[in-house]
Design goal:
Blueprint lengths: L3 E9 L3 E6 L2 E6 L2 H7 L4 E10 L6 E6 L2 H11 L6 H10 L2 H9 L3 H4 L7 H17 L2 H7 L1 H4 L1 H12 L4 H14 L5 H11 L1
Antiparallel strand pairs: 1-2, 1-4, 2-3, 4-5
Length: about 200
C-alpha cells in the first residue's frame, strides 16, 4: 500500500494531480483544498488513500496535501453511506475548520449546501462525527480540531451543559473565547461563556 508519493508536479487540475517520480506518473484525485495547496509548486508530496470504486471494482487513488486532510477524508468515508466522492466534495466545499464548526454546531443547513448531500446525510455526518471531533480522535482531530482537545474547554463545556445550556451553543461560545484567549483557565472560560450565553 502506498502512503505518499513525492516528486515533480507533472500535471495539476482542480480535480487531479499527476506526480512524476523517477519517470513514472502517479495520478490522484484531489479536493480543491489540495489543489490550492499544490498550485504553483514544482515539487510536492501527496499523501495517498486508495479507495475501491463500487461501480466497476477498480481502485482509485485520492491524494492530499496534508496527512490531516487525508485523516479527515477517512473519518468522512467511515460514516455509513458516505463514499469517496461525497468526502471529496465536502473537502472541496469547506476548509477543515469550517467543516469542524458545521459538525460541532450541528449546522445541517450548512452541510446540506454541499452538492449531493441531503438532510439525512448531513444529520448522519453530525451524529457519527461529532463525538470523534470533540474527543479529538485520529490525526485529523489533533491537527485540525485543536480547540476541541483543550482540557480546560472540555471541563468548562461539561459544567455549562450541566447548567442547562445546549452543547452546540456552549461549544460555539467556548471556541470564540479560545480564539481570543487560547490560554484561558476553566473558570475564566465559564465566566466569559456565561456572558455570551
Amino acid at each position: 500500500m502506498t502512503d505518499y508519493i513525492s516528486g515533480r508536479v507533472a500535471e495539476l487540475t482542480p480535480t487531479q494531480v499527476v506526480i512524476d517520480n523517477q519517470g513514472i506518473g502517479y495520478v490522484s484525485e484531489i479536493s480543491l483544498q489540495t489543489y490550492s495547496a499544490l498550485e504553483g509548486k514544482s515539487q510536492a508530496t501527496v499523501y495517498v488513500q486508495r479507495q475501491l470504486n463500487p461501480r466497476d471494482g477498480s481502485f482509485i487513488d485520492y491524494g492530499f496535501a496534508t496527512k490531516a486532510e487525508r485523516e479527515l477524508f477517512r473519518l468522512i468515508t467511515g460514516v455509513s453511506g458516505m463514499g469517496a466522492a461525497s468526502a471529496r466534495m465536502i473537502l472541496s466545499t469547506f476548509t477543515s475548520e469550517e467543516f469542524n464548526q458545521a459538525i460541532l454546531s450541528e449546522d445541517v443547513n450548512r452541510l446540506k449546501s454541499v452538492k449531493g448531500l441531503g438532510v439525512k446525510s448531513a444529520q448522519r455526518l453530525i451524529l457519527e462525527l461529532k463525538d470523534k471531533i470533540v474527543k479529538g480522535e485520529g490525526e485529523a482531530a489533533e491537527q485540525l480540531f485543536v480547540p476541541s482537545r483543550n482540557e480546560a474547554m472540555e471541563e468548562a463545556a461539561r459544567a455549562l451543559v450541566m447548567l442547562g445550556f445546549s452543547k452546540p451553543n456552549v461549544n460555539k461560545a467556548l471556541q470564540a473565547i479560545l480564539k481570543k484567549t487560547p490560554e484561558a483557565k476553566v473558570e475564566d472560560l465559564i465566566k466569559a461563556a456565561l456572558q455570551i450565553l
